Amino acid sequence: MNVHHHSYDAVIVGAGGAGLRAAIETAGKCRTAVITKLYPTRSHTGAAQGGMCAALANVEEDSWEWHLFDTVKGGDYLVDQPAAEIMCREAIDAVIELEHFGLPFNRTPEGQIDQRRFGGHTRNHGEAPVQRACYSADRTGHMILQTLFQQCVARDVNFFNEYQVLDIHFVDDGNGERRVGAVIAYEQATGDLHVFNTKACLFASGGFGKMFKVSSNAHTLTGDGPGLLYRRGIPMQDMEFFQFHPTGIYKLGILLSEAARGEGGILRNDSNERFMERYAPTVKDLAPRDMVARAIQTEILEGRGVGPDKDAVYLDLTHLPPEFIDAKLPDITDFVRTYLGLEPKTDPIPIQPTAHYAMGGIPTNVDGEVVVGPEQKVVRGLYAAGECACVSVHGSNRLGTNSLLDIVVFGKRGGRAMAEFVSRRDVDLPEIPKGIEDDVRSRIEKMKAGSGGEKVVDIRTVLQNEMMDKASVFRSQESLDSVLKTVHELRERWDRISIDDKGEVFNYDLVEALELGYLIDLAEALVVSAAARPESRGAHMRVDHPNRDDVNWMKHTLITREGDGSVSLDYKPVIGGAYEPMERKY
Amino acid sequence: MASTPSTTTAAPVSDMIDVELRVKRYDPERDKKPHWETFNVQVKAFRSVVLDVLHAAKWHFDGTLTFRRSCAHGVCGSDAMVINGANALACQALVEDYGSVITVEAIRGLPVIKDLVVDMEPFFAQYRSVLPYLINSGDPGYKERPQSAEQRERFDDTTKCILCAACTTSCPVYWGNSQYVGPAAIVNAHRFVFDSRDEAAEQRLDILNQRSGVWKCRTAFNCSEACPRGIKVTQAIEEVKRAILFDRV
Q1: How many independent structural domains does chain A possess?
Q2: How many CB atoms lie within 10 A of CB A326?
């Protein structure tokens, strides 16, 4: 195993929307390496479909204040309002900037960017759905990813493709505080290790939805970035809030965009009832995702599901004009044809909630700086943006389209702040000791030498099944205690993994084993955080504590992993603003 | 509302089917040359894809079997490979369309590194060579640049490219001449040449008018058949040829 040494002003880990947007921002300002375990265009930003909200008011009256209100209410008041205000205000410039970068948005007859309806986005504080989501058919994420990559090509951004960051090294900044010194990456093509000595590092490595059985997430969304920081003592924030998207393809979890309902699609149960009328009389099928997912699960649990096991409901597009479906929803209807063998123009589509998005993650401020503890102390040189980060603009339940907004707004802000930081005269390249890659090397060697006989697939399958059954849409103390016990058993089994591939070149057998380790650690963080919150808020629904408790629980969870592997919890207050908590009705 | 729910359910069933998977394998650390290996695996009968077959072989029989994949539903472009002789994405290729014997090998024309993993760098270098980004020196201010729905539609097809290389590596000309820029790069040039907001069509057409450019295309149509996004690749290439010949867009 050869070791290579590099030095940069800045490193970006991950090349999806947030990482690429940050890279555009640092280009020309500081020497930056963008390290990604995939090729940039393979990132899961490309799987996002429906749109990106911004109050352009191209189609009807709108304002960023309404967008902010919807975001705060949608997040069930766990949103930090100053951060959400920045996101909703800057959304408008962000969309215009993407258009200037070349993004091919759908257009209105007047040649402006077209806008469509989306769940939880309303006019005038909840009166009715509003057309706010800027889109490009049902492949908006693909267009964002391609456009940002194109702009990186134009700027000659320095990519390290198929390099997987596995560790970070902090140094003492001279005042007894830690600052970023280096990251250590594993080169998939050769098995070599690369030490990137750097003044700063921005994590934009995405989510960890592969800890659940039914998931819209890519196989590679295993939480490596948050996972490795968590192991190095960086707390994770609000991990109990994990979004289940209402409409995943039955069993497979492949995403069917909320745009399907934004364009008129309807959810129906076994008696063809439009059941969302009972749960959200005003906005019906366009309620926020947490409410729709719970409504679907409730229909199923109460025996009104469809299919042989009555464990799905229907997404019905059959009343929409066929040419309209082809124009507005071409990709998702193709997915249904391919993976279910159904024709969405004539057949209702069996769907179920699918693990989709981590509201929680690496705690940051609005400049992408990672902040630790209730006192929000900045870790010098450490930044995060996108799904792996928690600003928190999504609170306990993210509104549809706000993730695409998050990645471009906070990817840009994080990149800009990092470029400014590394350009400061008093910020030098940290000296790093020899051998900081030894820990990664020994983890790899130990995994290759493992002879305990446990297989990655067996452990991962149990994890995914148990998390789906006991820590997904509905939770209880009992279910969480049970899954926590399982997670601890799985970690012991993980230590006894044997892999087949002992080679150096493209050893994905090894990679999958290492990735599973991060999933297990983050699953534990999710479950412990959830078990400690005896209330129901946003995506965190405790059947044994079904009400929101604003007196005791208007606060963010921080979970920290200690050196001995034990975990501890801490809390910090939600940063409020103009909107006081009120009952959440739609 | 169309049909009643009970008649339209196409729920996956748990029945399994046997598949004989033949993979062209090569491990640079062990093998002098490629060789075929067979795995007998079971996958769900209901609409399993070739990626499921590969995962069944890797996860249950031989962890050294190596292939790229990520999204598993045809949008990331990681898992293009030759399946029963033709290029496809493994995550989109339904087992029922291929039968019980499935042969899989790496896409052609790019250097094989290990099993189904090829060196993608030459492909991306060709992509970069056509200036695949919007070029416009004007200052549109704080508004979007206007574009009519018709202008937007003009290049819609080629915006769908996911850079999976299925087209380029299905091209017989590309197999014989790796200097040829290839269909994917032309598709990505087309995407900007026909975008009303772009100002660099001539530069791109000059690049594609060179010896390594569009005139290498022999209109075999393999690329169009291979595209997992349904892009009319050959038509896009023809449109670029015509733009060069008849001076414009």
Answers
A1: 2
A2: 12
**Domain match, A545 and A453 both:** yes
Residue A3: exposure state from Cβ atoms within 10 A (0-12, 13-18, ≥19) = middle
Measured CA to CA in angstroms, residue A33 lies from A36, A221, A537, B157 at distances of: 10, 21, 39, 33
Q: At CA A558, angle to CA A553 and CA A560, rounded to 5?
A: 145
Q: What is the CATH number of the domain that holds A316?
A: 3.90.700.10
User: Pick from B122, B225, B228: which is nearest to B175 by CA?
Assistant: B122
Do A168 and A183 meet the contact criterion of CB atoms below 8 Å apart?
yes
Residue A253 covered by a domain: yes
The DSSP code for A320 is: S
Residues 6+ apart with CB under 8 A from A15: A23, A34, A36, A38, A40, A43, A149, A159, A204
Using one digit for the tens of pLDDT, what is the confidence trace for A5-56?
999 999 999 999 999 999 999 999 999 999 999 999 999 999 999 999 999 9
For every residue of A448-504, which 3-state class applies, written as one string?
HHCCCCECHHHHHHHHHHHHHHHCCCCECHHHHHHHHHHHHHHHHHHCCECCCCCCC
Q: Facing residues of A352 across strands?
A: A248
Nearest by CB to A509, which of B9, B64, B163?
Answer: B64
At A576 the three-state DSSP class reads coil
Residues of A in contact with B94 (CB under 8 A): 338
Question: What 3 state SS string does A40-109 have?
Answer: HHHCHHHHCCCCEECCCCCCCCCCHHHHHHHHHHHCCCCCCHHHHHHHHHHHHHHHHHHHHCCCCCCECC
Q: Which of A327, A355, A383 is the last residue of a domain?
A: A355
Smallest CA-to-CA distance from A90 within A71, A103, A116 is with: A71
Q: Which H or E run includes A300?
A: helix A289-301
CB proximity list for A577: less than 8 A, separation 6 or greater: A72, A81, A82, A84, A85
Counted residue by residue, chain A has a size of 586
With b for 16 or more beta-carbon neighbours within 10 A and e for fewer, the A95-119 pattern comes to bbbbbbbbbbbbbeeebbbbbbbbb
* Contact by Cβ (8 Å): B130, B188: yes
Q: Taking a C-beta distance cutoff of 8 angstroms, is the pair A573, A79 a contact?
A: no
Domain of residue A536, residue span? 438-573
Whole-angstrom distance, CA of residue A153 vs CA of residue B134: 11
Whether the Cβ atoms of residue A66 and residue A130 lie closer than 8 Å to each other: yes
Which one of A100, A338, A505 has the shortest CB-CB distance to B140? A100
Chain A touched by B30 (CB under 8 Å): yes
Predicted TM-score of the model (pTM): 0.97
Q: What is the Cα–Cα distance from A390 to A239, expressed in whole angstroms?
A: 9
Which CA distances in Å does B218 have to A21, B171, B180, B238?
39, 9, 12, 10
Q: Looking at CA atoms only, how far is residue B86 from chain A in angstroms?
A: 18
Q: Say if A125 falls within a structural domain.
A: no
List, for residues A529-570, the tens digit of each pLDDT value.
999 999 999 999 999 999 999 999 999 999 999 989 999 999
A261 within domain boundaries: yes
CB A39, CB A409: distance < 8 Å? no
A564: three-class secondary structure by DSSP? coil
What are the structure tokens assigned to B189, written together? Answer: 């040039």
Domains for chain B: give ranges and CATH numbers: 14-118 (3.10.20.30), 121-136+148-245 (1.10.1060.10)
Cβ separation of B117 and A506 shorter than 8 Å?
A: yes
Beta strand pairing call for A128-134 and A349-358: unpaired
Task: Give the end of a domain, one of A355, A372, A405.
Answer: A355
How far, in Å, CA of A315 to CA of A256, rounded? 9
Which residues from chain B sit within 8 angstroms of residue A318, using beta carbons? 1-2
Q: What is the DSSP pairing of strand A236-237 with strand A242-249? A: unpaired
In a domain, A552, yes or no: yes
pLDDT in tens, B168-215: 999 999 999 999 999 999 999 999 999 999 999 999 999 999 999 999
